[in-house]
């Protein structure tokens, strides 16, 4: 089930690899909506607020886990593209050790300081106990997140984008069923919702692990493959830590904008919440494009197919432009009914605000596509620190725009993310060509470092 992205027409390869990823992202977002609805409808508004109050810190920590595991998979993609399977196995085992180390440290730190984190975030006193029950369970289950994200990353690095999606879809269905059982039958309140999520994540991780061990002969480890190597560990951390920090930096920027919107009042918060849910669905193809280009870049750098990097970039940018135009057209005509999926009749008066927020972002979907495509391609090429710097620029742009909200109102909040995407693109486009020139020069001159 591996896919070699170093041979064949880039457009066809990108589509065949990316479409399964897209279905996975879409289904995961659908599950998140259903999961939220179950909590809100069965446990009430207070429970929903308790879970919602942890969303930013949840995204911060789980996003770091997702990013670091994706970074650990980049050397796997490069050695797979280079057909160096002995090195590939050693990178896989080294990544396993690193996941155990980082998983233990992150789990211990977040569970010990969980209550302090919630107090630091000014979580309301009437919901902080429930919020603590929920997020503490998620933090205790972080090893399950590491298991799935690392195994899924390794599978994608070898060209198998379908298996992680299959297990993710199965886990999402299991999660929904367990939500109903734990909340309605066992009366476990928000703890039941969190425990269901962790168990479903564990199922997906174990499924990917079993498939890796049984389905890929090149991953049949030899005793020497498990030997610790500081050089390999350093190389993987150079890839993984910047990607993990990138997710966290993005979360910080989002928190800054959310804080600014909170200052405008409940009506604006509600409108942004509804429009954001529509945005998450409509932006799923950009996430799939990014994940695809990370693997594409890693494999082709490993095979030293420098021209194919340009070809793949052009093909994916074309896809991004086409989708951005079509999506803007669809949202222009359907923004109101789509927003009403998340608003009740009493909140219908907020539709103009939700529409403004959604369409302002949609006007800049093409810059967003470039952010995902180029940033993840650079990461796959082995230049994660540069991609992380682009994330810092996004955070700076969102932070600067958030300071304008008190003066220019809701319109400034609407333009916060577009400003972040444009600033990141200015840097990323120049960075990509710099990285490409560096790789070509490195291959021609062994004296230069490879990354």
Separate helix tally: 20
Provide mean pLDDT, rounded.
88
Radius of gyration equals 22 Å
Judging from the principal axes of the Cα atoms, what is the shape? globular
The count of strands amounts to: 0
Question: Are there runs of 5+ residues with pLDDT below 50, and where?
Answer: 447-451
- How far the N terminus sits from the C terminus, by CA atoms, comes to 29 Å
Q: Please identify the structural class as seen in this structure.
A: mainly alpha
Structure description:
This protein is mostly helical and 451 residues long. It has 2 domains: 218 residues, no CATH class; 211 residues, no CATH class. α1 packs parallel to α9 and α4 crosses α13. The longest helix has 35 residues. The chain is globular. The C terminus is likely disordered.
